Amino acid sequence: MARHERWVMLTTLVLLQVVTIVTGVYAVDNDLTLSALTRRTPPAGQTAPPEVPVVTAGPVLAGLTARPGDGPLPTKPTLTRRLTDALGDRALGDQVGAVVVDASTGQRVFAANPDTGIVPASTTKVVTSAAALASLGPDTRLATRVVQGASAGAIVLVGGGDPLLAGPKAKRASFPAQASMPTLAARTAAALKRRGVKRVTLAYDDTLFTGPATGPGWKPGYVADGHVAPVHALAIDEGRQTPGLNRPRVADPADHAAAAFAGLLKKKGIGVAGAVKPARAPAGAAELARVESVPVYALVEHSLTASDNDLAEALARHVAIKEGQPGSFAGVAKAVPQVLGRIGAGQGIRVYDGSGLSTRNRISAAAMAGLIALAVSPDRPGLHAVASGMPVAGFSGTLGNGRRFTGADSKGQAGLVRAKTGTLNNVSTLAGLTTSRDGRVLAFAFMADRVPVYAEPVLDRLAAIVARA
């Protein structure tokens, strides 16, 4: 099969599955979740817009005649010999798990230490993403709101767990399109002026997420080094002091966001009296204004492509809340396996955060490859954003940084592999999808957590061997 044809097949059959997903907003029971996940209740005095279905994927090259599963499986002895030789590279260290499965049937094509729990690093985001899509639904949106306070002149800014919320310094052009704090301030000011209110007291409610702001198994320098911000339900620009720059991260993202909101209100002609302080929004408070994120499927795609730690942590907490657990790291550890168990993918997965920064996480190669195969199944259209969000080898995201798939033994497969990377000290992982020469869609996971040296070229070689099978 020609290289171009294989790329078309991988793009069409695996990433979009030639399906259209149209889902509604998912009902939830938790009151705090109702304030964070979108619901179509307009602010007082406004008319609700007509419901418009969200189309999350559409027909692409629908006339293609090839089907997943066409062609024979790769010859096992040949593939086994090549992968075994590559796995013997000393750069991988002495603890490696490797699995390759046929995505259509789940049949195992290759395995080495398949059930060993290995520190997954950022390939944890595959697990988080699948759980978010399965629990929250692909078309759910995260809402940041302003509600009436205890008096006519009091308002409360309510964090909805959207770390991509853009602050006043953010560039307006972004992907995915971000909900905007300036837009929220403009809508709030307009609502207040309609009521004849030109001066308010402002509080902020950051209680949707609970527990420690940094995760178990995180190294102390992660925040200082700009890898992640303290996890809060209210934040702008992912807790960055300067949008676009990872360092420095602000110490208190919620207070920082509320201060920015107060400044924006003043520019819109609404005075803010006194200090801006944290406070819980009154139960059942009338909503004055809101802004909403893009749907969860787009958030998942961004989280995977960019390996966005802040967004992954927020998605994991929303899963915890939806599953009846606290919006904390402890809640995530209970809820994510619970969701994966419901879809038949919970075995071999133990996580303590959503991003993979935790060195306590353990995922087996069998569990990872199996979950990816499940995510591209025609029977699981709601999970397909896991595939479409993975970086393309040599072209996008963490596989398009100019270092990956550049070796003589892997550059020929650039563009033919989609995979999520994972890197921590002494940890290197790669898990994703490709097609064999005969058109079989293959899911793979290569994971090592006792890596003595730079091991990414070896992982690229392993994925390239699968792509050449």
Describe what you observe in this structure.
- By secondary structure, this protein is of the alpha+beta class.
- It has two domains: 76-137 and 298-468, Beta-lactamase (3-Layer(aba) Sandwich), CATH 3.40.710.10; 142-294, D-tyrosyl-trna(Tyr) Deacylase, Chain: A (3-Layer(bba) Sandwich).
- 31% of the residues lie in helices and 16% in strands.
- The longest helix has 15 residues, at 253-267.
- The radius of gyration is 23 Å and the shape is elongated.
- 55% of the residues are buried.
Tags for this model:
469 residues; alpha+beta; Beta-lactamase; D-tyrosyl-trna(Tyr) Deacylase, Chain: A; 2 domains; six-stranded mixed beta sheet; five-stranded antiparallel beta sheet; 13 helices; 15 strands; serine-type D-Ala-D-Ala carboxypeptidase activity; hydrolase
